[in-house]
């Protein structure tokens, strides 16, 4: 068989191989991280276009998704929102951003058909006490929240002192130069590890350096080369050294690069599940909504969740206790089985520490590296001697490609699910476009930490009494 035919048989068609990445992935598992509960509904192109298209383009209902749990029960009948209905405006006002037009979600999602507000139970309040505690006084009518080593004379040395020292230091952690070529040709990780490859990348000789060494060697054929010069000359004899090291680095780094993308996505997926399942979170929303509607004298159906972070800054006008204190007291009274919230949503805290714009950038970079690796492989096939490496490299890259398919599907579905989740919380499409996952999770996490601290302080005070 001709050499060209062997190369053709051993190497996948690059374009065909790369195009196959866009095909759906069947098993959504990345090492120990299981994303298999991301349904086809999360592949909706409607959600993918959400951030770039005007709202009017997303009003059509998507095809029905796989069977999901039944939606939440319908909400109790509420009168239309009104300003100052049935109450005198002598209480402090909560300057929240009221959610308008809480219509059913455009399609059935994992979280149901209705928003979270539709399933909240009404909360019975002691309105007389609230009116007393948050009485608007003349002094508090406005509430604003701010928010070289010297070489021996008998050796040939042509490199500068700085470059020579860098090479000598690197060689102290590497095998002898004579052992480097066979290890690099075979990509033997038992001889060179990831740190060794990184050191070698800094030692790749330039054409000018090789020319100087060869000229000096020709002028003094019997004089030995200094250690640094010998290393560069040895490495310079390896064809496409930089390409080999890059390809080897990609094969070794793929696991960690994949993990940097998959772990934040897993935290976000789990964060949505924990928050949607937290009964304490729903009780808090219902209580704050009831208090705010009373103080504002209206019947809002929901509010933007960023206001939760301001509950500790609004204080009543008599005891000077923050509104968060009164929310905690009410929950302990009305919902004694409620938790401290923070312990229920640990994944929210983890997701709040991630940068999902960086996750997107890392994913695009990983795709580019995978594509470039196939190009590098085609180049090396021309210079790699017959052996196991010619069979091992395509196998490694094919495995990385298959895992990249899964990662692509996971990334798309988690982000689309987050968009659905924010809409489940009552946010409009315009608000969804402006909501960053890390900012949202950080807001909820910080509030839950404040809530836990306030709750613990109240319980401790009761024990002392």
TrEMBL record:
Residues 62-79 have a biased composition (Pro residues). Gene3D superfamilies: Formin, FH2 domain (1.20.58.2220). One of its GO terms (biological process) is cortical actin cytoskeleton organization. Residues 50-61 have a biased composition (Low complexity). InterPro entries: FH2_Formin, FH2_Formin_sf. Residues 41-84 are annotated as: Disordered. GO terms for molecular function: actin filament binding. Residues 81-465 form the FH2 domain. GO terms for cellular component: cytoplasm; cytoskeleton. PANTHER family: FORMIN HOMOLOGY 2 DOMAIN CONTAINING, ISOFORM I. This is FH2 domain-containing protein.
